[in-house]
Amino acid sequence: MTSVCIETYGCTLNQSESEELIHQLDGYRLVDFASEAHVVVLNTCMVIEATERKILKRIELLYGQRSHRTLIVSGCMVQQLSDQLRSLFPELLILQNDRVAPYILAHFSCEPNLTSRLNVTARVKIAQGCQGSCSYCVVKLIKGPIKSRSVEVIAKDVEHMIQHGAKQIFLTAQDGGAYGLDSGCRLPELIEVLCELKYDFRLRIGMMNVSSILDIVEDLLQAFKHPKVYKFLHLPVQSGSDMVLERMERGYTVPDFKRIVARFRRADRDITLSTDFIVGFPSETAEDFRATMQLIREIRPVKVNITRFSKRKGTSAFILEPVVGRIAKERSRMLTVEHHRIAYEQNSLNVGKIYGALAVERGKNASTILYNDRYRPIVVARELTLGVRYALRVTNATPTYLVGTLS
Question: How far apart are the first and last CA of the chain?
């Protein structure tokens, strides 16, 4: 039987597209390591330069081993770097995402009617593309403007995933808040429809840009009240300086961001806040960075993604001179230290509390990772049945997860 390994890089949208490919390849043996595969698929990302370099090195390594397996490259790199890839790797198979499954089905044998490999977690794409025009980002150049999938198709996908064992569904997009801007049916309406499905599951709403939800905040608050929705808000701010946000062309101000956070916290004071920061953006001053440090101390997010500015060809920020590397690196370090301090304090507030939590995946040393209804990870030092909810008492905390025992 043909074995297939799929390596996925980048955002949850890429992960959902890889999961879709897995479903299409029902009947093939899916393996976790390229060394065990007849076919290796790299679903690529190129949002930042470091990721692009990492993937190119991976392609180079696997390309040198191509006599032992077929190597297929798909994803974002295909749309931006096809000519470069063909020049570097003449025999490389370069395919758009929607052509990968047909190619494998046409060229490699399988055994039909095998059960698809579905996990407790499933990712469902709700839209592709972006309505923003950020000066530093290549997403719109690669994916184009927002293209929303219909509510009916999404609901059908979600129901299929649940019927095959999924207990938590991640709704994925480059900007979930922009869902429906092209169709008229916005994100709160989609959430309400999905929550009406007669199954026991949880929805995690993906990243939403501030500018995309300014006009639907109240409707989102209502949708988030449903018990099937994780009380988890991923709202990237990128900088604590309005001057930097203006140069980034983000389309909102720091007060806009803080008002939304405050509104969600009034509705649920313990909601899990996740945000993103970019440090070292061109002309970011020491004062701008101090504003970022002040903002993280004020909003106290539990989860933070921190990246250093990365020049991307084709964007308007590409020609700008970034902050000196050593300064950007030091700012990244300082912000990370502050984030870990805050996250530890926030997580420590949960010690002694009892939560219902879903067993999602195996951890290290025979442990299990569970998530409560605010999407906080809780590690239990024993193997529990995945897909089952347990009552847990939190006994300890770290900056990135809670520790618990069965209550």
Answer: 45
